[in-house]
Write a structure and sequence with these properties.
Layout lengths: L1 E6 L1 E2 L5 H13 L6 E3 L14 H4 L6 H13 L2 E10 L5 E8 L5 E6 L10 H4 L8 E3 L4 E6 L6 H9 L4 E5 L7 H15 L2 E5 L2 E4 L2 E2 L5 E3 L5 E4 L5 E6 L3 H9 L18
Parallel strand pairs: 1-3, 2-11, 3-4, 8-9, 9-10
Antiparallel strand pairs: 1-15, 4-5, 5-6, 7-8, 10-13, 11-12, 13-14
């Protein structure tokens, strides 16, 4: 299976409309790939909080439209990264979309863990509440976004729901890049799953981005890693290796916590 991770750069001097068109061109150029993935909030920049409200769009707005067409043009499964969604009630969400090779929307994931503590995304956006998996012909994706990577219980729940490939779209800051690679490998090892982590390049509202998109196999080995600048990271991986790894080293079968309600003893 071939995946193309588009580590797009966010330049504050580039308009959102121009970046949408450029991202669509990058996706369309990936014909022959099975799966293409974009990063978190690439239309506006993950740290460009002042732009969130002005650039928010409905679920089936311009980003949805152009990404659906790009998926169909390339004939690929497309995780279109995330954008700022404005729901009918006015709530903003950090929303990821997945499209089929025919350009049909296959999934919507609204980010569950919101970053910022008492500012930014954490106070401006609503939190998603639903786990999302997507069945592809050769693997099942589990969807997560950026800060989600720090919460292992989310990924374990995705594995329980059948995920074999964990896709993390991110806008991760350079100053915490060591955490990005460490956590991506940890989530792969503990869940015996592939991790495809796709980050942005460039600078968002003065925050330098880490880049370094990464693909990790179920044993925690890094199969490919990007640099700091914009690039398309393409990698071949074998989805069947998930089942092989879990059979050879069946650690998931030894879980004792989180499988059932605790028993209260007198």
């Amino acid at each position: 299976m071939r995946a193309s991770l588009i580590q797009i750069a966010v330049d504050p001097d580039e308009s959102v409309d121009s970046r949408r068109q450029r991202a669509a061109s990058l996706v369309s150029a990936q014909r022959g790939a099975d799966l293409v993935v974009l990063p978190e909030l690439w239309p506006v920049g993950a740290f460009a909080h002042d732009s969130f409200r002005n650039e928010a769009e409905p679920l089936q707005g311009p980003t949805h439209e152009i990404m659906a067409k790009a998926a169909a043009d390339a004939g690929v499964w497309l995780h279109a990264g995330s954008f700022v969604e404005r729901a009918p009630d006015g709530t903003l969400y950090n929303t990821a979309l997945v499209f089929t090779p025919e350009g049909e929307r296959a999934a919507v994931y609204r980010k569950i863990h919101l970053f910022g503590f008492d500012e930014g995304e954490a106070v401006m956006m609503g939190a998603g509440e639903e786990l999302v998996t997507v069945a592809l012909p050769h693997t099942t994706l589990g969807l997560a976004t950026c800060y989600d990577l720090r919460f292992p219980e989310l990924f374990r729940s995705l594995v329980d729901a059948g995920a074999q490939t964990l896709v993390v779209a991110a806008g991760w800051p350079e100053r915490r890049r060591a955490h990005w690679t460490l956590l991506a490998r940890a989530r792969a090892v503990e869940n015996q799953a592939y991790v495809l982590g796709v980050a942005t390049a460039g600078t968002h509202a003065g925050v330098e981005q880490a880049g370094h998109s990464i693909v990790v196999d179920p044993w925690g080995e890094t199969l490919a890693e990007a640099g700091a600048d914009e690039e398309v990271l393409s990698v071949e991986f074998d989805p069947a290796r998930v089942a092989t790894t879990r059979a050879q080293f069946p650690a998931l079968k030894d879980r004792r916590l989180g499988l059932a309600a605790p028993t209260t003893r007198p």
